[in-house]
């Protein structure tokens, strides 16, 4: 696939094909890894971290924070059914 470089300020830029964007669930602000080897440049979308609830809970310093009066608060949606 050929790309045309365009000037943007003091840099040259090229577009990223939509198929690559969609395939890797990228959007504006996403970061990608560039690997340079001589005349070759590859672009890689890094894997997104997968978090487990148990691991996140273990990082909480003193368990979940409690909200005073939580149990006495009136329902505001479909909490009861």
Provide the fold topology.
Layout: E1 6-8, E2 11-13, H1 18-23, E3 33-37, E4 40-44, H2 53-58
Question: Can you give me a brief rundown of this structure?
Answer:
The protein is α+β, with helices and mostly antiparallel strands and 81 residues long. Helices cover 15% and strands 20% of the residues.
Mean pLDDT: 89
Distance between the termini: 55 Å
Structural class: alpha+beta
CATH C-level label of the domain at 6-61: Mainly Beta
Element pattern in H and E: EEHEEH
* Rg: 23 Å
Low-confidence stretches: none
Specify the biggest β-sheet. 2 strands, antiparallel
Measured as a percent range, the helix fraction is: 10-25%
Biggest sheet, spatial arrangement of strands: 1-2
DSSP, total strands: 4
Instruction: Count helical runs.
Output: 2
What is the correct CATH architecture of the domain at 6-61? Ribbon
Instruction: Name the overall outline.
Output: elongated
Which percent range describes the beta-strand content? 15-25%
CATH topology of the domain at 6-61: Pemi-like Protein 1, Chain: D
Descriptive notes:
- This protein has a domain at 6-61: Pemi-like Protein 1, Chain: D (Ribbon), CATH 2.10.260.
- Helix content is 15%, strand content 20%.
- It has helices spanning 18-23, 53-58, and strands at 6-8, 11-13, 33-37, 40-44.
- A two-stranded antiparallel sheet has the order 1-2. It has a two-stranded antiparallel sheet with strand order 3-4.
- It is elongated.
- The termini are far apart.
């Amino acid at each position: 696939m050929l790309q045309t470089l365009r000037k943007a300020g003091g840099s040259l830029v090229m577009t990223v094909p939509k198929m690559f964007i969609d395939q890797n669930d990228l959007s504006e602000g996403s970061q990608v890894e560039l690997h340079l080897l001589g005349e070759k440049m590859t672009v890689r979308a890094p894997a997104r971290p997968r978090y487990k609830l148990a691991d996140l809970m273990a990082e909480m310093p003193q368990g979940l924070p409690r909200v005073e009066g939580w149990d006495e608060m009136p329902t505001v949606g479909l909490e009861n059914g």
